[in-house]
Design goal:
Number of helices: 11
Protein name: NodB homology domain-containing protein
Low-confidence stretches: none
GO biological process, one term: carbohydrate metabolic process
Bound molecules: zinc ion
Keywords: Signal
Number of strands: 12
Number of domains: 2
GO molecular function: hydrolase activity, acting on carbon-nitrogen (but not peptide) bonds
Oligomer: single chain
Order of helices and strands: HEEEHEHEHEHEEHHHEHEHEEH
Largest sheet: 6 strands, parallel
InterPro entries: Glyco_hydro/deAcase_b/a-brl (IPR011330), NODB_dom (IPR002509), Polysacch_Deacetylase (IPR051398)
Shape: globular
Length: about 325
């Protein structure tokens, strides 16, 4: 976004937040320490502990039932209302985040991608990082077929490999799940490695998720089966990807799933490529989902679209920075 449109959005947000008290939805992915974190998805356990302590003391953290009640009934939010969400279903959500939620007695909603649960395999962007950034040595160039088209990427130096990683990551975001799987299979062969993932990047087991779902501080939502940009799929494919994750979660956890978040979920797009579209909203409604979160900056008001709510991505900020950011999130 340009500096000017940033400023315009800030003014629009500022005025909206003066008209009505906003709520803020926070988006986390992982609570752990990693050797490298090119997507910046991990918040350290110490920082997350401090975030929750601050939110518990200074903000009104709503649980999913309370938040949904405000959203569905278009009720203005209480002062300093915050809703905490996690995407993807990493094992550290169970091992690191859950005990901190119990310690601070703070609720959160965890959106789960189901295809890699209970397996030693990683989600594709982690898998891409594992193959390209942790395999040594690699061949000097990568020839790969992506949806019937031949591509060539340089991999003859560390900086070339890093650039290739970021470039492929952008391309695969808008590919269908079968294409991503075929690209990864070619990469394993090319690098001389296997699909077996790193224990540090695994998803929860069904047993872990079951315990998690029984915590009074936890609500579970779905996040598709294989984590595609649903906006690139036909309506029927969207129904199937979203519906499969909902069905599996309901079957294993024996609870109704009412919440969903779009994978990636940004409103930014590339040409005709979208992360979600009108069909995504239609499919969510057809599946009986009651509230859907997207992933773009903004606050929630009683007039917000409950099938594409804005969320604010939280990075690995230390407490002073987190405090400042939280104040800003309620203004702009
Ligand atoms: Zn995700």
């Amino acid at each position: 976004m340009s500096g000017l449109s940033d400023k315009i959005f800030n003014v629009v947000h500022y005025v909206a937040n003066k008209v009505q008290r906003p709520a803020v939805i926070l988006l986390y992915h992982r609570v752990t320490k990693l050797m490298q974190d090119p997507q910046e998805l991990a918040v350290s356990p110490a920082n997350y502990d401090a975030h929750l302590a601050h939110l518990a003391a200074e903000y009104n953290v709503l649980d999913a039932t309370q938040f949904l009640d405000h959203v569905i009934n278009k009720k203005p939010f209480p002062e300093r209302a915050v809703f905490i969400t996690f995407d993807d279903g990493y094992a550290d959500n169970y091992h690191e985040a859950l005990p901190l939620h119990a310690k601070h007695e703070v609720p959160a909603l965890f959106y789960i991608t189901t295809s890699k649960l209970n397996t030693p395999y990683e989600l594709w962007w982690d898998d891409l990082e594992r193959v390209l950034l942790t395999t040594d040595p690699l061949p000097l160039k990568l020839d790969v077929n992506i949806a019937g088209q031949a591509w060539e990427y340089p991999t003859d130096s560390f900086s070339a490999i890093t650039e290739t990683y970021y470039a492929l990551q952008q391309v695969l975001r808008f590919c269908k799940p079968d294409v991503i799987e075929s690209v990864m299979a070619q990469l394993y062969d090319w690098a001389g490695t296997t699909a077996e993932g790193r224990p540090t990047h695994r998803m929860m087991t069904w047993d872990e998720l079951k315990v998690m779902s029984q915590s009074p501080y936890v609500t579970i939502g779905c996040h598709t089966h294989r984590h595609p940009a649903v906006g690139m799929l036909s309506y029927d494919e969207q129904l199937s990807e979203i519906g499969e994750s909902k069905r599996l979660l309901e079957e294993h956890l024996r609870i109704p799933i009412e919440h969903f978040s779009y994978p990636f979920g940004s409103r930014k797009f590339l040409g005709s490529k979208r992360y979600y579209n009108a069909d995504s909203i239609k499919a969510s409604k057809a599946l009986g989902l009651k509230m859907v979160c997207a992933n773009y900056h903004g606050q929630v008001h009683s007039w917000s679209n409950s099938y594409a709510l804005p969320r604010i991505l939280v990075r690995n900020w230390e407490l002073p920075e987190f405090k400042n950011k939280m104040q800003q999130f309620f203004k702009y």
